[in-house]
Amino acid sequence: MISLRWRLTLWYVLLTAVALGGFILISYRAFSDSLLREIDNTLVERANHVTDALSVIPNRPIEGVSPEITDEFRSPGVYVQILNAKGTVVARSFNLGAQQLPITAVDLEQALSGDGFYTTAPISEQPVRLYHRPLRREGVTVGAIQVGQSLVGLETTLQRLRLIYTVGLSSILLFGLAGSWWVARRGLWPVSHVAQTAREIIQAEDLARRVDYNGPADEIGTLAATFNKMLDRLQTLFENQRRFLAETAHELRTPLASILGNIDLLARYETDGDRQQEALTAIRRTGKHTARLLDDLLLSAQAEAGWHLQLCPVAVDDVFLDAYEAMLLMASDHTLQLKRCEAAQVLGDADRLRQVFTNLIDNACKQVAPDGVVMALWPENGRVWVSIQDNGPGIPTETQDHIYHPFFRASNQAQSPGVGLGLGIVRWIVQEHYGDIQIDSTPGQGTHITLSFPQLPA
Fold first, then answer.
1. 369: which DSSP letter?
2. Which residues of 260-283 are buried (b: 16+ CB within 10 A; e: fewer)?
């Protein structure tokens, strides 16, 4: 496979060859036509001179014209010949020797009956440009004049020009090939450096390494910066993956150890009904916790894989009330204040919306004193707004940027139940509903969570 460097070089040389070739063809044609026009003008001028010379002897018949009249206007490579109305040569320049300028019957007829015209014919194996025009006296055509000029000089000049063009084009293309290869090699060196760094990173499995680029902020600089950003992202993803697996193993180890311990108790106290009932209750509670953890892990993985929710019209106020009533039973030590709940519809998934509300209310209840969590839902300006506010210790300022990361728990929540998957899942579900989530927290004063969703027309 041809390398990019050679492809760029060949494209440059090809474009240069096309451009120069077009210039050469146009200039060659223009120069050739210019030389031919000069020859044609010379022939017309000589023909006019001969006509003027013959006009001063109007009484002499054309057959009696002296050859000196025709020879007077010849020059090296220029020939003059006079014919009568029958096509018989009556005079010609001496430089023709025994030869005559060729003329066909068709050309003679046209010369006698029409205006001047040009032809090209060989004489002594040399091309000659011929000009034919009628010879008139008192409005009567009495013969024709032929003036010719050898095209050897023209062909010689054009041949030299072709040689110059060929040598010049070849030299330019060779220089362009070498120069463009060097320019492409130098221009693509940073790209090669990026590729080499990438290979070394792959071989060393060191995602902490970056491309060292100190050049200008051009396309190559943008490539290097983008590559480094990609490495930052990959490093973050791999670190998150390792941490995710480690945290998942840690979180699953605890409930599994509890279940196994309670199974041992069942085997040990097989005759003690009370002890067995306690063990079964503990197993059931731990199993529910494990099932919830696995559901959260699965949903988190689906979100990372680009899975999307199936949405349909939902009465979001009913879902909000269900979550409120369910949490009333669980949060017996806390006062849940439902200040506002107005009818509204959104395009959504009722189960996932219930999961969002339950998770946020549960988090708020874990952090507050018994005097409360304040909740509200209302439509306004084409959106449905949900507010959940608590008066707990708030989220430390230094950790607020990490609250959506998997398994993250703030230092003041480290002893709270849960594994830190909730807010990340909540944000994903809200975004799947084309909604927004905003968390405002002031340490020592509580947390205020605001959700908004596009409202469906009633």
1. -
2. eebeebbeeeeeeeeebeebeeeb
User: Model confidence over 265-296: pLDDT tens digits?
Assistant: 778 777 777 777 888 888 888 887 777 777 77
| Chain segment 58-111, per-residue pLDDT in tens | 555 555 555 555 555 556 678 888 888 888 888 877 777 778 888 888 888 888
Number of helices followed by number of strands (H, E) in the chain:
10, 12
Three-class SS state of 222: helix
Residue 100 DSSP SS3: coil
Residue among 312, 431, 331 at smallest CA distance from 375: 331
Asked whether 352 and 432 are in contact (CB, 8 A), the reply is yes
Fold of 312-454: Heat Shock Protein 90 (3.30.565)
Length of the chain: 458
CATH 1.10.1740.10 fits 219-304, yes or no: no
- Distance of alpha carbon 192 from alpha carbon 182, whole angstroms: 14
4-157 belongs to which CATH class? alpha beta
User: Helix 316-330 vs helix 350-367: angle between axes, to the nearest 10 degrees?
Assistant: 40
The CA angle 109-113-115, to the nearest 5 degrees, is: 110
- Using an 8 Å Cβ cutoff, are 315 and 346 in contact? no
Tell me the domain boundaries of the chain: 4-157, 219-304, 312-454
